[in-house]
Amino acid sequence: MKKAIVFMTVISFLLLIPPVLGEEQPRYDLILVRNDELIDYLITLPYSHSFNIPILPINPKELNEVTKAQLYSYIQLGRTRLLIVGNVNAISLEVEKELENMGFIVTRIGGADRTETAEKLALHFYPNGSKTVILASALDYGSTLAAAELAVEYNYPLLLTWESQLSPSALRGLEELNAKIVVLVGFGINETVENTLKELGYETYWIGRSIEPPPFYTQTSTTPQPQESKYSFLKGVLITLVVSAPIFFYLGRKVRTQQNEILNLLNEKEKAVLRAILEHGGEIKQEDLPELVGYSRPTISKVIQELENKGLIKREKSGKTFVVKIERKIKLD
Predict the structure, then answer these.
(1) HEC string for 254-314
(2) What range(s) does the HTH arsR-type domain occupy (predicted)?
(3) Which of 46, 112, 187, 329 is the most buried (most CB within 10 A)?
């Protein structure tokens, strides 16, 4: 019992020692990570938090229209410094070139695998090193998530290793950071890794092997926080509006353009059926349409099918017939 108390007291003290941050801290306006793999997002979280850089997950192969609208909003605000996390297999070279063509200054940090990417991020954001380093499994996402949360709370670099062998990237990272203490997190690492670290002279602590959560989780970080300006809330709202307005305007215009293109391609029978539905409040029984528009039942069925395929209406079963409803806001000439 006494050993457990001593252990938790020591680790609480160690985690509250502030890290050594470089005088020339990296400056980015936005960090981009792939949206189909969680690991790059997790290993980036500590640096996003420490340096107040937002993270945007994106399609690794191409930039869709929504993402482009978001990125153009950043350019309009004069924020052009981007960091891509991962190699060209994580986010493609085509995406990087497209970002540069949009006007961004792009930096890429990525390794041959996730352990090397984590190493390069740690060295990049902590050029002066860190006495304490958080270490998690490269394959156990649950452990990595917990480790990322710990690194965020106490502002320490995060490295990744393999389950039963200390990864070369983690070893290089520890050496380059001049680390003395390694905090292992979770069940995704076995004792072989810890034994290797001890043999190399590192002081190790392992969080996650016991069921009870360690007491330092309830403590607050000693990292200095910026002074809150009385105008910070108003400024935040203003930035949000400036960023969001072009996006909603762009998407709204795109939707209206697509709808107009569809309506312009409608034939007279399709327009007649749509008008009949609109005149009845946007909802009508299909069996009533032949009499209203003067077409046969087979013709009405065919027209309804075409309009449904174009996403303009939908049908719902109602007894022995169908109720036809307008699917979107439509304005016919």
Answers:
(1) HHHHHHHHHHHCCCHHHHHHHHHHHHCCCEEEHHHHHHHHCCCHHHHHHHHHHHHHCCCEE
(2) 251-333
(3) 46
Better-predicted residue by pLDDT, 254 or 151: 151
Domain that holds residue 275: 266-333
* Predicted structure pTM score: 0.58
Give rounded-to-5 percent helix, strand, coil for the chain: 50, 15, 35
The answer to whether residue 258 is domain-embedded is no
Give the Cα separation of 285 and 48 in Å (integer). 55
What are the CA-CA distances from residue 296 to residues 219, 224, 289 (Å)? 75, 76, 9
Crossing angle (nearest 10°) for helices 65-76 and 93-102: 40
Rounded to whole angstroms, what are the CA distances from 100 to 81, 93, 94, 107, 206? 10, 11, 10, 10, 43
Residue given tokens 């270490």 in the structure block:
135
Instruction: Provide the CATH number for the domain around residue 331.
Output: 1.10.10.10
Are residues 106 and 17 both part of a single domain?
Answer: yes
pLDDT in tens, 174-193: 999 999 999 998 888 889 99
The residues facing 84 across adjacent strands are 32, 108
Q: Is residue 233 part of a domain?
A: no
Contact predicate 125/47, CB 8 Å: yes
Residue 230 falls within a domain, yes or no?
no
- State the Cα–Cα distance between residues 45 and 152, nearest whole angstrom: 7
Give the pLDDT band of residue 283 (cuts 50, 70, 90). confident
Among residues 157, 191, 216, the one where a domain terminates is: 216
Instruction: Give how many domains the chain has, as a whole number.
Output: 2
Torsion angle of the four alpha carbons 163, 169, 170, 176, in this order, in degrees rounded to the nearest 10: 170
